[in-house]
């Protein structure tokens, strides 16, 4: 079993309040075009016309060669953190996603990365978690490599 883990609410509230992003810059404010603007906290597409934040995000506590940093979107207004058991909206809108496992040392576990069709994500996650050296999985955009969410064992 596994669960999809959205960004922590405390981190998101700080960014919504103006805390600098991973590069020390203020999050940019923009208007959502709807599809293609997924919030990494509620894991839904930010509705068209709503204000959103664009910022650099690094889903790792420390910098190291595998600590990728990239652009993400967040709802500018407070939203509820995703806590569901099904694949969230943002992981159903693309034909495929890049998924890859990481060890407890936050390093990529080689041989786990794959562009995975959306309807095969659950199977691929189970296969990756069958490896004892995998601690968690990241889901990224298969087109732009943007971080989407983390997957943890239950």
From TrEMBL:
InterPro entries per the UniProt record, alphabetical: DUF1203
Pfam family, one: DUF1203
Name assigned to this protein: DUF1203 domain-containing protein
Organism: Ruegeria denitrificans
């Amino acid at each position: 079993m596994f669960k999809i883990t959205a960004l922590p609410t405390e981190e998101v509230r700080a960014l919504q309040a103006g805390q600098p992003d991973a590069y020390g810059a203020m999050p940019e404010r923009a208007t959502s075009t709807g599809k293609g603007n997924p919030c990494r906290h509620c894991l839904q597409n930010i509705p068209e016309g709503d204000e959103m934040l664009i910022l650099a995000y690094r889903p790792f506590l420390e910098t190291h060669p595998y600590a990728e940093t990239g652009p993400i979107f967040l709802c500018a207004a407070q939203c509820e953190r995703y806590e569901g058991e099904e694949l969230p909206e943002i992981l159903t809108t693309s034909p495929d996603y890049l998924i890859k496992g990481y060890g407890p040392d936050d390093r990529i576990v080689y041989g786990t990365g794959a562009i995975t069709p959306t309807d095969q994500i659950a199977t691929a996650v189970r296969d990756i978690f069958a490896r004892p050296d995998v601690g968690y999985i990241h889901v990224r955009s298969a087109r732009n490599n943007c971080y989407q969410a983390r997957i943890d064992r239950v």
